[in-house]
Amino acid sequence: MSKNTPKAIRGTQDIFGPDAEAFAFVVETFERVRKLYRFRRAEMPVFEKTEVFSRAIGETTDVVSKEMYSFEDRGGDSLTLRPEFTAGIARAYLTNGWQQHAPLKLATHGPLFRYERPQKGRYRQFHQIDAEILGTGEPQADVELLAMADQLLKELGIEGVTLHLNTLGDAESRDAWRAGLIDYFEAVSGELSEDSQERLHKNPLRILDSKDPRDKAFVADAPKIDHFLSEEALAFFESVTSGLDAAGVKWKRAESLVRGLDYYRHTAFEFIPDEGSAAADALGSQSTVLGGGRYDGLMESLGGPATPAVGWAAGIERLAMLVGEKSEGPADAIIVIEDSSDVALVRGYAALKSLRLAGLSGELIAEGSPRKRYDKAVRRSPNAIVSFSENGHRISGDETTHPELERILGL
RNA sequence: GCGAUCGUAGCUCAGUUGGUUAGAGCGCCGGUUUGUGGUACCGGAGGUCGGGGGUUCGAGACCCCUCGAUCGCCCCA
């Protein structure tokens, strides 16, 4: 490689080979499962006005305050490469009048951008699959969404991952809990980690998540959300959990699970690898594989009418790390031209076309030393090899398929 | 933003306390061999050792800067 060749941008990836196959497998499985649950496809722009994200996600969040790819376009507007799906979907819902379809089940996937330090399972351009149910505040929407997530992980063959579930309550419950936590941690603030002293006023809920042993000592006795839950919020959560039980979705209560973005209310959840599992090992410290929750206040922050909604997103790269080796699979047939005659090549082209019209996959090997072409074909391990020379053809591979192949190729 | 480890052919890696012209395997290209066959042998192309500066008679190796990768912290999917 010349030193003149530009390098890829930090934190971006060129995905190829088994990794690309695993990536495609995740997306294809998501597409299949999403149809089973009757979620409709939507495509949103990759960039939006910056305020779409800053207003929806919250100015003080890390995502908005230091991780966005923002730039000014030629017209002087501040635009931002989407750091997540939900805000853009909410904007689309409002600006297109999708209220008429409520409750609306949407699915999408694509690239997201966050200016973070790259790490295992974390990239600056990364990819997510995403599912949302917009315009309904019914707990059955939460159940439906989680049932789909659960089935998706099963269809991907991912094991050792558990649904961790919590409720943040409604806006009042959440605010009361937050105030309670501040009181509690303020009393011992001198003994908390530096990070948590920072978090105390910015985002006290985050302290509950801390990995620092100094914090953990106090987290166990910190006030629990359950004490602050209004009757309605409690009833909502109970109806979600009983729905999950009925739908056969296994879950685990995670009292200290919070979500980083300001818009979450009520249900919050993450699918996390079990400790010591192969999945935990494969993912490293970026362990949440799928996460989301209810965001009843989000639409209002974008100037829309109060519109309840739930959603989740999952990192395609992280899922791909868990699905195991995927390979391309063998070609149905490879056509080899075994000499340099024009006759053989012409017959090869014709055979290739017939093959593909019949719905079989295949390719042609007619380059390089004729003597070595057959070896090349063998190395690709196709189901069959059809070789042409000036005065004939030969088929190798599973003999029972030869008559069928000869019929298709007109031999 | 902070910390640790690491950058040598397309890939995986050797390269001794600093010492001539930097190596191997795989892959690629060609030749011979074989001829229902992932064979064997021979040959070839491909590197300003991530980049820049410094120390030295001499640097792939030592020092500084920089870029990148990997793994943690943070954050999150």
Describe it.
The chain has helices spanning 18-36, 50-57, 62-66, 86-95, 139-155, 171-186, 194-202, 213-219, 231-246, 278-283, 298-301, 316-322, 342-357, 370-379, 402-409; strands at residues 40-41, 47-49, 69-72, 78-81, 104-113, 125-134, 161-167, 251-253, 265-273, 290-294, 309-315, 333-337, 362-365, 384-389, 392-397. The mean pLDDT is 91. It is α/β, with parallel strands linked by helices and 411 residues long. It has 2 domains: 18-170 and 230-322, Bira Bifunctional Protein, Domain 2 (BirA Bifunctional Protein, domain 2), CATH 3.30.930; 333-409, Rossmann fold (3-Layer(aba) Sandwich), CATH 3.40.50. Helices cover 38% and strands 21% of the residues. Helix 1 (18-36) runs antiparallel to helix 5, helix 1 packs across helix 12 (316-322) and helix 5 runs parallel beside helix 9 (231-246). The chain binds one RNA strand of 77 nucleotides through residues 1, 3, 7-8, 10, 61-63, 66-67, 84, 112, 114, 116-122, 126-130, 195, 206, 211-212, 259-261, 270, 284-286, 288-292, 312-319, 368-369, 371-372, 374-381, 385, 387, 394-396.
